[in-house]
Specification:
single chain; 271 residues; alpha/beta; serine acetyltransferase, domain 1; UDP N-Acetylglucosamine Acyltransferase, domain 1; 6-stranded mixed sheet; 5-stranded parallel sheet
Length: 271
């Protein structure tokens, strides 16, 4: 007798979405006052992408532009740029791995404004590339108001990003951020004056940027470098080095192979 091949389970096909829906069902069962919110945000949706579009549009709702219209734009963008969903999944996994305060995939999806600000930027970036620049700038403005994160829609950002807390993060127009980068609150990737053209930092893969760091000018932060909290970085940083101070100077090695994942912000200063 021929064996019937089993279809792969949803957990195998989309484990992040499965974990989100499992967590949502637990909340709906155990916290009745949140059940309507959980159902509308997660359980009413068939896919991660659908739920993401709904959740971010709800957060950005304003009298100027309703959540329904924002969601319609997001759904259109997702059809053309499906990589948004994959990058968002990688951002959730990165947050779970690096943030000790994050215990469930559902938490960044529902509550963490750093994660939500990055997803807003992903939509704005895709809209900008499609020529819908005014809507992209509108989303930047709303993200700044709602999440206290101001990222120009032209900025290129990779996947697996953790924007921890998010408050006070500013990223200028010509900046670039590689894959698997961790950025804490109060970080600026800015220019050094009012010059035009390519004038903002380029951050490599695996970089950790500590709270309050200011990285200014068209400089390169090498892969797996570590920027200490409160530093003002005005020159290129080699790969796998730690810099600290005002202005920042190299004080040693990065301390590990992938600082963004390790999130180790302690170092021994070499005299």
């Amino acid at each position: 007798m021929r064996k019937i091949k089993k279809q792969p389970s949803l957990k195998i096909l989309d484990p992040v979405w499965q974990e989100i829906t499992d967590g949502a069902q637990t909340i709906a069962d155990n916290e009745p006052c949140l059940s309507s919110f959980i159902i509308s945000s997660v359980l009413n949706h068939a896919t991660f992408e659908e739920a993401l579009s709904h959740r971010i549009s709800q957060r950005l709702h304003h009298i100027d532009l309703s959540s329904d219209l924002i969601r319609q734009a997001f759904d259109e963008v997702m059809q053309i740029s499906p990589e948004i969903g994959e990058a968002a999944r990688a951002d959730i996994v990165a947050t779970m791995e690096r943030d000790p305060a994050c215990h469930r995939a559902l938490e960044p999806f529902l509550y963490f404004k750093g994660f939500q600000a990055i997803q807003t930027h992903r939509f704005a970036f895709a809209l900008y590339k499609q020529g819908r620049k005014d809507l992209a700038y509108y989303l930047q403005s709303r993200s700044s108001s709602v999440f206290q994160v101001d990222i120009n829609p032209r900025v290129v950002i990779g996947k697996g990003i953790m924007l921890d807390h998010g408050t006070g993060v500013v990223v200028g127009e010509t900046a670039e951020i590689g894959d698997y980068v961790s950025i804490l609150q109060g970080v600026t990737l800015g220019g050094t004056g009012k010059e035009d053209g390519d004038r903002h930092p380029k951050v490599g893969t695996g970089v950790l940027i500590g709270a309050g760091a200011k990285i200014l000018g068209n400089i390169t932060i090498g892969k797996c470098a570590r920027i200490a909290a409160g530093s003002v970085v005005l020159k290129d940083v080699p790969s796998c080095k730690t810099v600290a101070g005002v202005p920042a100077k190299i004080i040693g090695e990065a301390g590990c192979s992938h600082p963004a994942s390790e999130m180790d912000q302690m170092f021994n200063r070499k005299e």
